[in-house]
Design goal:
The chain has 3 helices and 2 strands. The chain is mainly alpha-helical.
């Protein structure tokens, strides 16, 4: 969220740029939303992810979603 609408280093998986175009914007949001409920291992097996860094992004996204869900369930 902190990099929204900004140019970033496309090679840094922690910058929030799953499209890899060097800009965090609506295309990245659409990528995240389009893969929201798909487990990371399914994405990797289907070759949807471009690189190993995308697998890391998917893992971090799944981890944050799980954390948010567990906080909400308390």
């Amino acid at each position: 969220m902190g990099n929204w609408n900004q140019d970033v280093n496309a090679n840094d998986p922690l910058q929030g740029d799953p499209s890899g175009d060097g800009f965090v914007g609506i295309e990245d949001l659409n990528t995240v939303l389009g893969n929201w409920n798909i487990p990371a291992h399914c994405l990797a097996n289907a070759n949807i992810l471009r690189t190993q860094s995308d697998l890391s992004d998917a893992f971090l996204l799944a981890l944050s979603a799980t954390s948010a869900r567990s906080r909400r369930d308390r």
